[in-house]
Specification:
There is one protein chain. This protein is of the alpha+beta class. It has one domain. It is built from 1 helix and 4 strands. The protein has a 4-stranded antiparallel β-sheet, with no helix packed on it. Strand 2 and strand 3 form a beta hairpin. It is flat, with a radius of gyration of 15 Å. The N and C termini lie far apart (32 Å).
Length: 77
């Protein structure tokens, strides 16, 4: 789950019945790295010293945000 003070990009879905939002997908923005907010067990990694227990997107934060914006522009245009 997101932590207080962290930077995140969350994709939300509104439920009219409950008048509430749920998180569809979330990403932690950590400087030059982006991580999915889904679980990654240490056993899922080939690296015996997993430094971050979230799945890395393998691109920089800037690249990720550019892709998200481009996707949004395509959907609205």
């Amino acid at each position: 789950m997101p932590r207080v003070g962290g930077r995140y990009l969350l994709f939300l879905k509104y439920d009219q019945n409950t008048e509430d939002y749920s998180i569809l997908m979330g990403y932690q923005l950590d400087g030059n790295s982006v991580y999915r907010l889904d679980d990654l067990k240490a056993s899922d990694s080939t690296d015996p010293q997993v430094g971050h227990l979230l799945r890395s997107e393998g691109i920089t934060e800037s690249q990720f945000l550019t892709r998200v914006q481009a996707s949004r522009d395509c959907q609205s245009g």
